[in-house]
């Protein structure tokens, strides 16, 4: 029932905003929308009438204000509701249409990540906050404000403003299952516990926050509150007395003192933390794939220790979609923003910025090195990017890392043997093996030609690295060295590493 009600609301919002510039005839709508209209409304005219009522109501300030006050998502102030752009689709239908009318006139403002819905003045402001995720109190850098009454547009640049507005209680601006929510809520809980935030307060400027921190004797480092040097710790209220929306994490008594700060930096404790920072890293799938092949190969690849399965490269972890629940809330949240009908087989989590990539590998089970056919990246700010695939596609190696040993749709042990086989080949340009053309022309033929020598029962055995040889022979590194010097084991040198033939059954 809840799903039907949600679907009806979403369809009504869609039809309301479809009035800009003109609502299409029923025959031009997609078959899926036509079916939903018949299911929820019985006919197109009834659906359009409901959408027109919603559109009309979104122009009434008293209804907008009421929707803002009852909204469970958003930072409510005396005159507005602040919402992160990733949470717009979870708002009340009136607020979604209210914001959608402004967007229909302005178009998408790519760098605006916070939307301010004015409760009384029929205005919508788009705020540019580049450090929304990385700073507890990010400054507003730019504002684009539109009045829906007279279409008067204001563009305000705050970059030269020495006293900009700083956002707070950011956990309220995003959905509860957003990957940033717990981190934001813990910090807000600490500020509430220290009396820095109170229910019903409006947001503060840099100077107002500086005063608060100087009076309290606290300072910010990352997403932690620290006592300034020489400040005596105070007994604070118990956690139970905090706001229900806060998750304080550390108790006040547990807060550490800071390292001795530079005295000249004390007057700008908040200003520096909120304004000065390195630029954010961008998610680049192709960069990860290049790193995948240029990273120094381990003695034997191993699955992600954190998740128990998955191929880990730097901050990125790749696994098959059958195991995506191990990533938890970030993936569940990102799937809601995934384009409809996009098929994926591999999921990648960037642990540094919580971006989730959904990767189409239709031959994952049937191909030894599955080919990547499509990538959609859902960033933690709600933006979605569809990657353009090159004519010479990328492939994945070590696909057994993406699954558990009991995965049944391909032979996991055989995949491990293939990894061992090609890793033992000398002269392979590892900076190019991510490309299908190089792999098939320069590596696959050599794996095939070596296959006879590595079959079970062959007296030749398999080329392995030192650590694997020690494990198979049950000897120490010194013993292995003696075997090599005495000519009792066949070996070859590849770069600075030794490879050994371990005879079958030895």
Radius of gyration: 29 Å
SS elements, strand count: 19
Integer tally of domains: 4
How much is the average pLDDT? 83
Strand content: 15-25%
Question: Could you write a compact summary of the structure shown?
Answer:
The chain is an alpha+beta fold and 506 residues long.
Characterise this structure:
The chain has helices spanning 2-17, 31-40, 44-57, 61-70, 93-106, 181-193, 206-216, 269-275, 285-294, 329-335, 412-423, 436-450, 466-473, 477-485; strands spanning 75-76, 80-84, 114-118, 123-128, 142-147, 153-157, 165-166, 204-205, 218-221, 224-227, 311-313, 316-320, 346-350, 356-360, 374-378, 384-386, 462-465, 491-494, 497-502. The protein is an alpha+beta fold. It has 4 domains: 2-166, no CATH class; 183-275, no CATH class; 285-439, no CATH class; 452-502, no CATH class. The strands form 5 sheets. It has a 6-stranded antiparallel beta sheet, covered by helices on one side. It has a 6-stranded antiparallel beta sheet with strand order 11-12-13-14-15-16, sandwiched between helices. It starts with a helix and ends with a strand.
């Amino acid at each position: 029932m809840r799903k039907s009600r949600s679907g009806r609301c979403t369809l009504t919002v869609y039809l309301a905003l479809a009035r800009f510039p003109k609502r299409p005839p029923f025959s031009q709508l997609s078959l899926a929308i036509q079916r939903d209209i018949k299911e929820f409304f019985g006919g197109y005219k009834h659906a359009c009438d409901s959408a027109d009522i919603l559109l009309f109501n979104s122009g009434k300030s008293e209804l907008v204000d009421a929707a803002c006050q009852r909204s469970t998502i958003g930072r409510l102030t005396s005159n507005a509701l602040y919402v992160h752009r990733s949470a717009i689709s979870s708002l009340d239908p009136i607020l979604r249409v209210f914001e959608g009318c402004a967007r229909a006139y302005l178009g998408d403002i790519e760098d605006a990540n916070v939307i301010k819905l004015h409760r009384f003045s029929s205005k919508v402001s788009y705020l540019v906050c580049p450090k929304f995720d990385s700073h507890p109190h990010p400054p507003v850098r730019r504002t684009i404000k539109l009045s829906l009454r007279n279409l008067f547009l204001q563009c305000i640049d705050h970059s030269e403003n020495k006293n900009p507005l700083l956002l707070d209680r950011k956990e309220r601006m995003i959905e509860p299952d957003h990957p940033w929510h717990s981190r934001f809520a813990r910090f807000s809980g600490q500020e509430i516990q220290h009396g820095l935030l109170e229910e019903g307060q409006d947001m503060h400027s840099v100077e107002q926050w500086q005063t608060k921190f100087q009076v309290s004797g606290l300072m910010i480092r990352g997403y932690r509150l620290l006592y300034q040097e020489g400040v005596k710790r105070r007994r604070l209220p118990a956690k139970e007395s905090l706001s229900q929306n806060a998750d304080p994490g550390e108790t006040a008594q547990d807060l550490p003192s800071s390292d001795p700060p530079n005295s000249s930096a004390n007057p700008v404790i908040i200003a520096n933390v909120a304004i000065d920072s390195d630029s954010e890293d961008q998610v680049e799938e192709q960069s990860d794939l290049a790193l995948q092949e240029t990273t120094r190969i381990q003695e034997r690849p191993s699955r992600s220790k954190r998740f128990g399965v998955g191929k880990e490269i730097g901050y990125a972890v790749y696994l098959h979609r059958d195991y995506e629940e191990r990533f938890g809330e970030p993936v569940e949240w990102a799937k809601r923003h995934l384009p409809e009908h996009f098929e994926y087989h591999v999921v990648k989590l960037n642990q540094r910025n919580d971006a989730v990539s959904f990767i189409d590998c239709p031959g994952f089970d049937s191909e030894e090195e599955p080919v990547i056919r499509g990538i959609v990246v859902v960033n933690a700010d709600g933006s979605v990017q569809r990657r353009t695939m090159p004519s010479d596609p990328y492939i994945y190696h070590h696909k057994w890392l993406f699954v558990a040993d009991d995965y049944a749709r391909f032979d996991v042990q055989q995949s491990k043997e293939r990894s061992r086989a090609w890793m033992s080949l000398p002269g392979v340009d590892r900076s190019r093996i991510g490309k299908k053309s190089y792999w098939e022309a320069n590596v696959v033929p050599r794996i095939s030609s070596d296959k006879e020598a590595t079959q079970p029962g062959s007296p030749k055995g398999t080329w392995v690295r030192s650590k694997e040889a020690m494990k198979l022979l049950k000897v120490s590194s010194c013993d292995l060295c003696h075997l090599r010097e005495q000519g009792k084991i066949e070996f070859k040198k590849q770069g600075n590493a030794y490879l050994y033939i371990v005879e079958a059954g030895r």
